Structure formats: C-alpha cells, structure tokens
Amino acid sequence: MAVEVLKKVYKPSMTVGQVYAKPYSSSSAPAPIGNVLELGLEHTEDVQRQDDMTQLGGGTHAEVRRVTEVKVTMKLADLNVVNLARATLGTVAGVESGTVTDEPFTVSGLGVLLPLAHIDPTAVTVKKGADALSATPVDMAGNYLIKPEGIVLLDGAPGITAADKLWVSYSYGAYAAIEALTTKAPELQLIFGGLNEADSGKPVIVDIWRCSQGVTQALTLINSGFGSLDVEGTVLQDPTKTGAGISKYYR
C-alpha cells in the first residue's frame, strides 16, 4: 500500500485544519491556537552561478543553490490572550476580580475621561469632597457615564466642577492584562493537522520542529471587518533531530 501512495499522481491540494503550538523544547503538550486563515512556508535561496566561457553565446557552466532562510507565515483569526501575547512580545498577567474603595481623581475639566485602575467597573459610587471620609455622593444622572474604560464626566455636569476632588469606588471582574514588547520572540514547535478538501479529506500533517515567531505586522484596533494578526517567523534548526534523511527543520 505504501508503494501505491508514493506512486500516486493525482493530488490536488486545498487544505484546512488545526494548528497546534507549544514552546520549543518544553514538556507541555501542543495546544490549538484557534482559527488560522493562512499558514505557509516560504524559502529563500542564495544562487551562485559560474558563466560558461567555453563557447560563444554564454550560458551557465555550474550552479550551486543554498537555502538561506525558511520563513513561516500565519494569519491568525482568533485574537485570544496567548496569540496576542506572542504576537506583541507581551507578558500576560491574570488579574483576579475585586473591589476598589475611594480611587482618587482631581477634575481638570468636564467632558473628559477618568481612566480607572481596572476595567469594566460595576457597582460604581462617585463621591466629591476634600477627603474620602467627608466626601458626599454625586448623583450619576447628568453628571457622568460609566464605561468599560472608566468614568466620563459630562459637559455641563451640575454636580461637578473643575478642581473638584472625586473618590470612585467600584467592583471589577477578572481579566487579562498584556504588557506589550516586554519579552523576546518566542520559539515554538508547530503542528498542522490538515485535511485536503480536494482529495476526499485525506490527512496532511506538517511538523515544524522549531521556529521563531515575530511581532505582528499590524494590530488593527478599529476596522469594519474581522480582525486578524499577521505574523511571521524563521524556521530554525532543531539539533535534536538526527539521522540520515531526517530533517532538522520540518516534515
């Protein structure tokens, strides 16, 4: 049967499938990274040629080709915490839910945002006064709006004026915070579990033993369509792969 597979000529390709990743050389199991819209390998060659000087008309007498780089490219559709952190060279911190009592602000003017220390506040209370103990509550109606990013003071707020001291108390849920550009590019092992739609759904498995993943080319924050992360990296040599005919790069 293996001989028949090797001899098969008809093999059109239109693949879909799941991409798995894990840190290179770690003992953890590869985990799915979500919907990957595009996955590819690109090869760059250095070509050295020697001119044929033995006759009129020229030509090539000898040629040597060496691969100088193998690039892996991915378009990631799922902007989950792991993908975002890898694509922004970020450090992830999980922030547990909690409460904040009397976070202080000094009003510089109306129509502005008071960005809170934590996102998506609930059970918000705003007080006004020289100190937290003597401060009195400010009615929300006509004075401020509660938004995920903080408290927006309304223009013409009757209960708040410039230079007022405000004290904001609230609750918040658990969330993830990513500090971008705080670490080096990750080295990953990738596995593509592909299915060939143009060939009766037959499996196509690709192992990329070791590759770097660079920062995303763009992090689009406002757009009219679905967002994605375009990332690329370099396939690196895996010194643990040994033996005749065994690739140190990918299979």
Could you characterize what this model shows?
The chain is mainly β and 251 residues long. It has helices at 2-7, 81-87, and strands at residues 15-23, 31-32, 36-51, 60-76, 91-95, 98-106, 113-115, 122-128, 136-137, 144-147, 150-153, 165-172, 175-179, 187-196, 202-212, 229-234. The strands form five sheets. It has a four-stranded antiparallel β-sheet, with no helix packed on it. The longest helix is centred in the middle third of the chain and has 7 residues, at 81-87. The radius of gyration is 29 Å and the shape is elongated. The two termini are 21 Å apart. The mean pLDDT is 95.
A few lines on this structure:
The chain has 251 residues and is mostly beta strands.
